[in-house]
Amino acid sequence: MPPHGDTTPDGDAVRLMAAADRPLLGEVPVVQAPLAGGPSTPELTAAVARAGGFGFLAAGYRSPEQLTGLIAATRERGAERFGVNLFIPSAPADPATVQRYGRHIQPASERLGVAPGEPVWDDDAFGDKLDIVASERVGTVSFTFGCPDSAVVDRLHRAGCRVAVTVTSGREARVAEGVGADLVVAQGTEAGGHQGSFLDLTPNLTPLSVLVDEVRAASTLPVVASGGIMTGSRAAEVLGQGAVAVQLGTAFLCAAEAGTSAVHRTALLEQTYAHTIVTRAFSGRFARGLANDFALRYGDSAPEAYPEVHHLTAPLRAAATAAGDPSIPNLWAGSGWRDVRPEPAGAVVRRIAAELR
To answer: Is 263 part of any domain?
Structure first.
């Protein structure tokens, strides 16, 4: 990477600065993951952009009105280019299955003195949010939990938006290329938070290095590599495999600009738990987080039922977070979580750039 003030790329960075890929990227091949559920803030996304990286706002769990405000607030903080991530709606689950899980988690509910939430299905206002990102002409729109159809991709292209799709296999990358997507985010098993699989909803166990090769063999789309990346040396490895950038999530969780809860930050920085686990316990979709009591006790019985399980457990997670109890909330974290630091978001981007040099 070039010295500060010099924008001429060198070394492995030449590939990611190629003209075809340049509209997505900042001066540094670092993409900040969307981080839905609280950590995503305009301050975080703008700080990453000002440092030369590329940040995403998470539209998940936000109302359309909130999303409009978040986009405006990010622009007001000086971010000219950033992305917005949308959740593709899942199919409704069997109500009886969800109700059985609700009864199973009753001991946790009783311990907290909080009733479980109503396990409703919703589409996260997908249509309204799609209208917003198109009308706001957001630079890049990424999708998780599915692949948009070609009509959606065409609409976003007409609005001047690039389209990215989160994939966990070569098959999914081919689907994304088939609908006209501009790039894919290859999410290895090491990634924290929800897995973006949509063709195979079993746990994604494919390591990032294997996945990058698989996706590049299956598709001609540019690849952003995501999963457990915390250092410039690891970033250099996947850039050397042909990825055009790396996406980091856990590395930003303890940044001052992130909206990460105090209990989540403390669990990461004090290493309250020994390891991470992939579980459906919290939301009904597989996700990687610290192996706390709730994840270990209820993971095996949790059904494939998103967003119903998310709504069911939400009051329990909120109450435990407010009480400073790390044993109940989802504490998303990638496999490299032990290297997380309480540093500003811009410092994370600059550190990765320096380590790449």
So the answer is: no
Q: Which amino acid is at 171?
A: R
Handedness of CA 240, 187, 164, 78 (dihedral sign): negative
pTM for the structure as a whole: 0.92
Place of tokens 């939400």: 314
Residues ≥6 apart with Cβ < 8 Å to 188: 168, 204, 206, 207, 208, 209, 210, 211, 212, 225, 226, 227, 228
> What range defines the domain where residue 306 resides?
93-123+274-330
User: Does residue 295 form part of some domain?
Assistant: yes
Residues 218 and 141 in one domain: yes
What is the identity of the amino acid at 50? R
Query: Would you say residue 259 lies in a domain?
Result: no
Residues 214, 286: one domain? no
Distance CA 119, CA 116 (A): 8
What residue has token string 């924008």? 7
pLDDT in tens, 156-172: 999 999 999 999 999 99
348 and 302 in a common domain: no
Specify the CATH number for the domain of residue 229. 3.20.20.70
Distance of CA 158 to CAs 136, 140, 248, Å? 12, 13, 29
Q: In terms of domains, do 222 and 344 share one? A: yes
165 inside domain: yes
Q: What are phi and psi of 321, to 5 degrees?
A: -60, -45
Query: Tens digit of pLDDT for each residue in 37-95?
Result: 999 999 999 999 999 999 999 999 999 999 999 999 999 999 989 999 999 999 999 99
Coil, helix or strand at residue 139: coil
